[in-house]
């Protein structure tokens, strides 16, 4: 294996499903992070605040991470 083929980083994240769309990601730094649905996303999937309180979606985090 050449130096260029070596794995530089392996993410160690644990995802815990709590209830419905509500999940907690346990990250190596700055964790845990709460994920869920809110506003239009919750409405689209028919999730009421009684089922799960609003939290940022995984899509929100992806957009934030790539918009830099």
Q: How would you characterize this protein structure?
A:
The protein is an alpha+beta fold and 68 residues long. The chain has one domain (3-66). The chain has two helices and three strands; from the N terminus they run βββαα. The N and C termini lie far apart (34 Å).
Distinctive features:
3 strands, 2 helices, 68 residues, three-stranded antiparallel sheet, alpha+beta
Order of helices and strands: EEEHH
Report the oligomer.
Answer: single chain
Which of globular, elongated, flat, extended, rod-shaped describes the shape?
Answer: elongated
Overall residue-averaged pLDDT value: 89
Beta fraction: 15-25%
Proportion in helices: 10-25%
Number of spatially distinct domains: 1
Distance between the termini: 34 Å
């Amino acid at each position: 294996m050449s130096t260029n083929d070596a794995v530089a980083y392996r993410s160690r994240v644990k995802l815990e499903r709590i209830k419905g769309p509500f999940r907690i990601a346990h990250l190596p730094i700055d964790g845990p992070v709460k994920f869920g649905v809110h506003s239009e996303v919750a409405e689209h999937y028919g999730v009421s605040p009684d089922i799960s309180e609003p939290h940022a979606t995984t899509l929100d985090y992806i957009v934030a991470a790539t918009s830099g």
